[in-house]
Amino acid sequence: QVRLVESGGGLVQAGGSLRLSCAASGDRFSIYAMGWYRQAPGKQRSLVAAITRGGGTNYTDSVKGRFTISRDNAKNTVYLQMNSLKPEDTAVYYCNAAGRLGYWGQGTQVTVSS
Question: pLDDT tens-digit profile of 24-35?
Answer without folding.
Answer: 997 687 889 999
